[in-house]
Amino acid sequence: MADPISVPIGEIGYKDMIEKAVEHWYVELQDGxxxxxxxxxxxxxxxxxxxxxxxSPVRFKVTVTGSDVPSLPVSVERAAIFRNAxxxxxxxxxxxxxxxxxxxxxxxxxxxxxxxPE
Length: 118
What we know:
Layout: H1 11-22, E1 26-30, E2 36-41, E3 47-50, E4 58-65, E5 74-82, E6 92-101, E7 107-114
Antiparallel strand pairs: 1-2, 1-5, 3-4, 4-7, 5-6
């Protein structure tokens, strides 16, 4: 039996892999302790894909109001990316520039850049 052939994936394949991977991701906003405030599918209207499609970093802009979170006041300080709505292990996570939601009408937009290696 012959050895398997190793062929590098080209630019089009790389872009396609990025797009297929992020189609069904979930973005979770968290407080400073890493507790879940809200988890949204990337197809939710409050979650917008920004930047050039098929390139790294993959950026999502999540816009929420105080009425979207379980209790107020709360500081949004972390973001995490998950493969589905119930996963407990994130694909990526980290701190973001904090924003305080004090009233139900307060609004914050969070941009989460995710770097995908080539």
